[in-house]
Fold these 4 entries.
Entry 1:
Amino acid sequence: MRKIAFWLLAGTLATGGLHAQDAATQQQIDKLSGQLQDIVETEAAQGKHLEALEKDLSDLRDKINTPVVNNFASADDLQKLAQQLRDIDQKRLQDRELILKKIEDLAKIAAEPTPLHHHAASVPKDEAPSDPAPAEATPQHGYEYPVQSGDTLSAIARAYKDKGVKVTVQQIEKANPGLTATTLYVGKTIFIPDPNAK
């Protein structure tokens, strides 16, 4: 195509040299030269476009020939995963039921007061206290109570009053020598006296 354009241009120029005096011919030569230049530029642009298309085609061939890495799970994989999730959920529900049952059992145990018979320690007559003032009698019957989180002496006394055991904070402190609000900690078992028990 370029050779043809070149020979046309050369022929036109040669012809143009012969008829240089004719202005109309010169205009036609100029017009043909411009068109010829446009054709050459268009051919160059088409050549670049063709090269780009060939490169795209080559890239597509490479992609087609490259083995695809399977990043997707098969239906079997999804079914296995779903079964594992169901198993885990079932185990979670069983554990929850077990925990709730244990909490319920513990609540029942904590709600039932356990009677405890306190035996006064015998003091030999020669070691009897020299203070003639009679000491207030501490009830010997009552309940053991394991201290729980958030408990206070007043809350414990109030809880036992609600159950019919009319006990005061002072009576609880007397029945548990050394017991104060600062020595009351979770897990410690204290004695709750029952003033009405005989």
Note: Confidence is low (pLDDT under 50) at residues 116-138.
Entry 2:
Amino acid sequence: MVYYRPAPGKDESFKLKSILKEEPPAGTEGIGWHRYVITQGHNTITGHRQGSLESVTVAVEKIVVGLNGRRLHKQGRVQLITSPRKRSPT
């Protein structure tokens, strides 16, 4: 099994950067919308979620944990090629 491990001193894990209350995104309705930002190095993920600040924070933290779990436990891909079976003489 091959696992990806970041180089020492380079923590490239996903982190919750911010959650801010915001107006509903275009095409949506309702109240209690928040905009969240997740970062990983130079990468940025921005999303919107409806709910209280507390419930949105819990949900986005679960997203961050899931993203980091996928990143740290990424298995290498192996392509298996099977060769034809040799038939025994009868």
Note: The chain has a mean pLDDT of 83.
Entry 3:
Amino acid sequence: MPSTASQHLLGLLRITLPVFQAPMAGVSSPAMAAAVSDAGGLGSIGIGASNVDAARAMIDEVRQRTTAPLHVNLFVHRPAQPDATVEAAWIDRLRPAFEELGLAPPPALREIYTSFDADDAMLAMLVAEKPPIVSFHFGLPAPERIRALRAAGITLLASATSLAEARQAAEAGVDAIIAQGYEAGGHRGMFDPDTPDDQLGTIALTHILSRRIDLPIIAAGGIMDGAGIRAVLDLGAAAAQLGTAFIATEESLADEGYKSALFSDAAYHTVMTRAISGRPARSLANRFTRIGANIGPGDIPSYPIAYDLGKALHAGAKASNEFGYGAQWAGQGAPLARRMGAAELVQTLANEMSA
């Protein structure tokens, strides 16, 4: 029997299963989001790495595929802090990897993503398009932006990695909190990545937030099957968010090198690294995470400037059929990944939850 918190959240979002597909930029597709939502969960797209035209096109494609609810995720990182000396040294540090591939690194690096807090065009598009659910990652936008989204009738979510962040989100007026445990794949949602990280796991964080925050809590991190969903629901979560579980689905945008790595020994050795993007993120162990081992955060350019070099290295390597420099984000539950369609996975999770 769903808890009161779960029933409230499912009613608010107009879904039937407490299953969120994580909005993984570069992996989630409109086809995946539509399939998940049609199956009763909450399908999601990540638009933090997209410009406003690409973001609108993704929203439109989901709507062409389904009338079910859609969750749209935004990056709300603080603006990058350029440092020409650090950036030049980082290019030189990665130069041997480029040269091994017969390539030259770019001569300079760019800030490749705009934070939602500085993107007026994205705000205007969302207010006009009115996706039913919007979430924030890396922090919270200014109060006037939250008011504009709420005035458009949009339900708001925010990720948090600690009680302090969750309290800030609650005070800002969001409707539910995504509790991101340290096990989770991809970027840590820390508001300030340069402050100490208590590294709370999903179980502890979910339990704490469900007792201390008077909002629905969505548990995220390391959850791969129905048993994991049941466990976090028993601890007070209103729903569970799964990302790594959807990487190998038919609708995923992950390339075959990424999917193959997910089913290799690398899945048992995920690594939290800044080297790929400039912010802490959990990846499958690969050639890039080995480069990043034992490098201090002060030697890595600011996010997302560092990501410009990371993406250039991956693109060059991939052209030579080398996938070991990719941003192969995955959580600690990676060894439990399964290959199937997104809708089939949601149905499988529902069956496992009720078994």
Note: Residues 181 and 202 are 4 Å apart (CA to CA).
Entry 4:
Amino acid sequence: MMKILKAKTSHPKKQIFQISDLTYIKSMTPLKELINGEEMIDPIQVNRHEIFDKVRYGANGVPYKEKTFSVYKGSQRIQAALQLGYTHIEGIISNE
């Protein structure tokens, strides 16, 4: 079942992102205000990336798993959304 964390602020280019499709900073602490029951004010901001045809490698020769979207602003909101059981979140694409 899809559970969406919606932003209070309206934005003409706002869209819904599946959290599992996003790259974000996993070490961030969840945003306390959201955990305490407050609304998310602004949508997260993500950057769209080009996925390369060739396999790229990271540390120790491990294949790098590329994702189309990375979170530019909002990793704490993502952490809070996950802790609260959300599967999707509203955001905007910053680099379009």
Note: The chain has one domain: 4-51+65-93.
